[in-house]
Amino acid sequence: MSAALGGAPPSPAAAQIERPRPTIRVRHLSHRFGALDVLKDVTFDVGPGEIFGFIGPNGAGKTTTIRVMATLLEPMAGRVEIDGVDVTIDPAAVRRSIGYMPDHAGVYDRITVREYLEFFADAFRVPSLDVVDAVLELTDLGKIQDRIVATMSKGMKQRLQLGRILLHDPKVLILDEPASDLDPRARIEIRDLLLELRSLGKTIFLSSHILTELSDVCTSIGILEKGRLVVAGPIGEIAARLEAVRAAQAHGHAPPRHGAAPGAYGPQAHGHAPPRHGPEAATPDGAPVDPAAVDRAQAGAPPPGYGQHPPHAAAPASAGQAAYPALSQISRRKVKVRVLGDPEAAAFLVRGGPGITDVDIVAGAVHVGYVGTDVKIAEIVQHLVRSGVGVIGVEPERNELERIFLEVTQGEVQ
């Protein structure tokens, strides 16, 4: 199956040695319809093997961006590259690299599922029809391959559309509202299919204004409002930057977000620079971030002196670090752990551990606040199991994407 529809995603070790070239690269993209500027200097990257969620209200400019990426619309300004190829210089090469599924795409109703896929396989000049069998298996349509398309549900038709764009084994999938108008079961099935496609090495660009359908699948996001990119990057990094802003505001070191100057979130907030990573990253005020501190936070390790001093007894920061918050505020998250037996005993075992910020019991579940990544969740579960506590459920905080969206947007439309 993987041989027919793509290889494995890049390994984490290789990504750490050298940052790969972005699969999708958008720079200073602008477009106008009449007197309306629908896109204003939009800049972002999508790395290989990512599921990138493009978020924004209706009319924000999401579909216009997608149409430019799909070579259906030429930008008035800026540059878009798909797998290193400029969409305006060689659109034919770009089309061979992408699978594009527009919102509310129609299907041919009076043929069977297999006939539909064989027709498009021929249109794509696929050398062997064996790929049709692979697509039927991947999309779970094999059992209904002889059914007339008109008799299928909306969810199955969406699966068929996904199957169609996979026939020529594209490297990049561009999906405009793929779960719109689907019932809950169909949404779950589409989500699971997207995760499977990512495991096959596909890079997926997914637009939506429904946050719940993105929160469980996206590795990175971009939020668009009134044609401007408000913020873009990995969800965890964006959340950490917002935590830094909140902490800086709490100490009087940053202006209010919604009344701030356009640069309150840095150049990336308005499409003037790619997301900042590594040593060149900075706090919202522009002060440099200590790379070692960030590495400790991402690894889930406590800051130096953790557990030795009260939280407010630390030495004063230097002038260059004044706006940077305490490490425990950079990547603080929550996880809900359900256990067999007494939750109080489980809470006692977790409380006070490295990277643990708070522990509460709510409705019989242990809610643990922690600093770090998913590695810390694994450590918590491993510690409980080794201590003889049966863990029956682990549920990370699910509202992070909603919180980010509400925090960085102002609810304005064009």
Automatic annotation (TrEMBL):
UniProt GO MF annotations: ATP binding; ATP hydrolysis activity
Family of this protein: Belongs to the ABC transporter superfamily.
CDD domains the UniProt entry points to: ABC_DR_subfamily_A
Organism: Sorangium cellulosum (strain So ce56) (Polyangium cellulosum (strain So ce56))
Alphabetized Gene3D superfamilies for the sequence: P-loop containing nucleotide triphosphate hydrolases
PROSITE patterns: ABC_TRANSPORTER_1 (PS00211), ABC_TRANSPORTER_2 (PS50893)
Annotated region described as Disordered, given as residue ranges: 1-21, 249-320
Name used for this protein in its record: ABC-2 type transport system ATP-binding protein
Transcription regulation as UniProt keyword: no
Domain ABC transporter as annotated: residue spans: 24-251
InterPro entries: AAA+_ATPase, ABC_transporter-like_ATP-bd, ABC_transporter-like_CS, P-loop_NTPase
Keyword field contains Nucleotide-binding: yes
Keywords, alphabetical: ATP-binding, Nucleotide-binding, Transport
Biased composition range(s): Low complexity: 249-267, 306-320
